[in-house]
Amino acid sequence: MTQESPPVAFFDFDGTLTRGDTLMPFLKHVVGSRVYYAKLVRLSPVLAGYCIKLMRNDVAKQIVLERYLTGYTLEELSIWGKTFSEEIIPTMIRKEGITRLRWHQSQGHDCVLVSASLDSYLRHWAQGQGFTASITSSLAGDAAGIVQGKVEGRNCYGEEKATRVRAWLESRRPQCSYAYGDSVGDLPLLSLADHGFLWSRRARQFVIV
């Protein structure tokens, strides 16, 4: 029989605990400004297609990752991810999100990071911030650990977030649950929780959904 566990709070990352996207800044951190901007120009049709909803999130992300990260090893990207988590992410933090995280931690709640962003850097950041667990997208590597820019399994976005959280909850029975997000892609996650909160850009605060 599954025993009752402490309350749990699930947090999206980009736009919820930070003020914006972290994937593109991570890619810039890895390849350097000159290469980053040169590739960005060539990727402009892909990014435009995503912005006007002509291309799915996962498809656009796959193309971007292939262009920037093919040839790197998982170990190299983990090293870059550690420095990114230590040097860049602290400059991008949304204080209102971190305040919510710290409150849940002070109450003894389990806190779980749930994000489509890459494990290469989120694993390091989540460990440093005291998260119970992190559920993220991971890059696939070949037998030698070399990356071709492909995501392992499904991109952790939208319904996939809810699917992975349900799997994480299979052996747990939290007293109650909370979830925080900032976009429509987080609504499946928020709908699972007893208490769901969405960041409102207009109100500049988290609102109940």
UniProtKB/TrEMBL annotation:
UniProt xrefs under Pfam families: HAD (PF12710)
The organism's place on the tree of life at top rank: Bacteria
Keyword hit for Glycoprotein: no
Coiled coil start-end: none
Keywords: Hydrolase, Magnesium, Metal-binding
GO molecular function: hydrolase activity; metal ion binding
CDD domains reported for this sequence: HAD_PGPPase (cd02612)
Record-given protein name: HAD superfamily hydrolase (TIGR01490 family)
Phylogenetic classification of the source organism: Bacteria, Pseudomonadati, Pseudomonadota, Gammaproteobacteria, Oceanospirillales
